[in-house]
């Protein structure tokens, strides 16, 4: 059995990685004939020491590079998803980053369901509390009670002033 030069072994290994681990295409790209590249003798070159060593070295290097890239991308997405508003990150950017992280973590697999609690009707006390909270939020948004005109300063939820009340017949 003839020995193969290290330079030729590296060339075969490079083409093997570039052609998606296809031995025939790698041998053709390295300069071997189509007939030899497709034969079992051609494929046997990959079992020889120098070619095998060169292939395993290149594959391990590419795996290490891919691992570093994945870690860096995940880290960058995490920073973007949880960034402060002062950093110029929009809500759309955050949502997209969280979506991509969720896909990476496999959260969108078929059959994965999240239970949604059952909706229920609010009683009178809870409705009054919800209206009061909504009024406070509106007042904060508008700049406080002094921002409202005097006529609108009345409590719409107070006695006789409920906007949502149906007319009595």
Which helices and strands occur, and which strands form pairs?
Elements: H1 6-18, H2 23-29, H3 34-37, H4 40-43, H5 49-81, H6 91-104, H7 124-142
Helix pairs in contact: 1-2, 1-5, 5-6
Portion of residues in beta strands equals under 5%
How many alpha or pi helices? 7
The quaternary state of the protein chains shown equals single chain
Q: Order of SSEs, N→C?
A: HHHHHHH
Quickly give the structural class.
Answer: mainly alpha
Main pleated-sheet profile: none
Overall structural domain count: 2
As a percent range, the share of helical residues equals 55-70%
Low-confidence spans? none
Global outline: elongated
Output the radius of gyration: 34 Å
E-strand count: 0
Give the terminus-to-terminus CA distance.
106 Å
Mean pLDDT across residues: 76
Task: Describe the protein's architecture and organization.
With 169 residues, this protein is mainly α. The chain has two domains: 6-104; 125-153. 56% of the residues lie in helices and 0% in strands. It has helices at 6-18, 23-29, 34-37, 40-43, 49-81, 91-104, 124-142. The radius of gyration is 34 Å and the shape is elongated. The mean pLDDT is 76.
List keywords for this structure.
169 residues, elongated, 2 domains, mainly alpha, 56% helix
Provide a compact summary of the structure.
Helices cover 56% and strands 0% of the residues. It has 169 residues and is mainly alpha-helical.
